[in-house]
Amino acid sequence: MNEYDSNRIADLLQSIDLKRVDDEQLADYFIFNTCHIREKATQKVYSDIGKIKKIFRDKRSKPTFILAGCVAQAESSVVFEKSDFVDIVVGPQAYHKLPGIIQEHNQNREKICNTDLDVSEKFDTLNSYKNNFSKVSSFVTIQEGCDKFCKFCVVPYTRGPEFSRSADTIIKEVQNLVDYGTREVVLLGQNVSAYQHEDFNLAKLIKQIATIAKLERIRFTTSHPNDFDEELINIFKSEPKLMPQLHLPVQSGSNKILELMNRKHTREFYLDLISKFKSARSDIEFSSDFIVGYPGETEEDFEQTISLVEEVQFSNSYSFIYSQRPGTPAVDLDQISKPVAQKRLEKLQQVLFDLQLKSNASKINQKTKVLIENMTSTANQFFGRNEYMQPVFINANNCIIGNVIDVSIHSYKRNNLFGTII
């Protein structure tokens, strides 16, 4: 979503005659679009601001520095106390105001902070600007914010309550991207499965988007298990353009920890949901998110996470040690020691990596359909992704970017597959 937001910021700033430059030495404006989901991301922001400050220390003219995104929302005007190099602070639901904010700053040279949470106004503004960053696979935000309030998560406080864009504006944006070469869209939301605008839910939106000619593939991320009804489950069976891969965060395999996290679902509910998806489409694969070392997690709780992972057989997943986020309910709970949490993370990641290798190995000598995204820097090598979002490298004299081709997989590494054209 940050990549999507960054591209939309660039679209907006064209209206005041600003364009992207590749050489940072030539930049008049720096915009950091930031993430606040983990502590390391926040720390990196101030470290990287220091690096930019150092570049311009000996130059007469200081560039205008803008801190945008979720760190900006969470820190607000405190940013100015932590770094005098920052001129403008703008949250993720207020970046549509950047053209006017920049012009105001240029006139009075005063620092400006805007962290309004008006997502409706943001998308009303963005709808009048074309999305000019069309790629073979393109992101489209359809929903923002979250109402679930998991106790570890900062999203409801940095992105605000759930908001769904109108289906008409989404379809228009996808059509524009397809007209300029997009062949796959990834529908984005902090809680995308909760999409609902007037008569359109996510299933109906996918059906409508699938009617767009030349669009080959549809994906969506990320979802909450509680938001799937039969219609949304069965869309995987009925819509061939929807890829058979689903990212479905579970966070823990222990009912006790799920309750402490306020996840509002149980282990049994999650496994039953997985079973329903497999009944709808037998070739579907799953990825997930896991937090280890959450306050209160015992060794038994952790082992329940391991057993769930082994039962579902995730093909790819993301796992992290619990990161305290200021302002969230879990921040004041007694913490698991870092060495214990680190040991658990290493064990979990080894299980996940083994499953990923197993998934990759199952593709050997199998046919897979690959959407060609680009040519690599290696001679006669092309890059694309298969139905399961796995990166595939193909040795070939010529492939047409944007085409879906049949590939036979002959080898693999943990993160990549290698194949030849059939």
Structure description:
By secondary structure, the chain is α/β, with parallel strands linked by helices. The protein has 14 helices and 19 strands. It is globular and about 60 Å long. The strands form 6 sheets. The protein has a 5-stranded mixed beta barrel with strand order 15-16-17-19-18. The two termini are 35 Å apart. Among the domains are: 117 residues; 55 residues, OB fold (Dihydrolipoamide Acetyltransferase, E2P).
Can you give me a brief rundown of this structure?
This protein has 422 residues and is of the alpha/beta class.
Fold blueprint:
Layout: H1 2-13, E1 29-34, H2 39-55, E2 64-69, H3 70-75, H4 78-82, E3 88-90, H5 98-108, E4 112-114, H6 119-126, E5 137-141, E6 143-144, H7 155-158, E7 163-164, H8 167-179, E8 184-188, E9 196-197, E10 200-201, H9 202-209, E11 217-221, H10 230-238, E12 245-247, H11 255-261, H12 267-280, E13 285-292, H13 299-312, E14 316-321, H14 338-361, E15 367-375, E16 381-385, E17 391-395, E18 404-412, E19 417-421
Parallel strand pairs: 1-2, 2-3, 3-4, 5-8, 8-11, 12-13, 13-14, 17-19
Antiparallel strand pairs: 6-7, 9-10, 15-16, 15-18, 16-17, 18-19
Helix pairs in contact: 9-10, 13-14
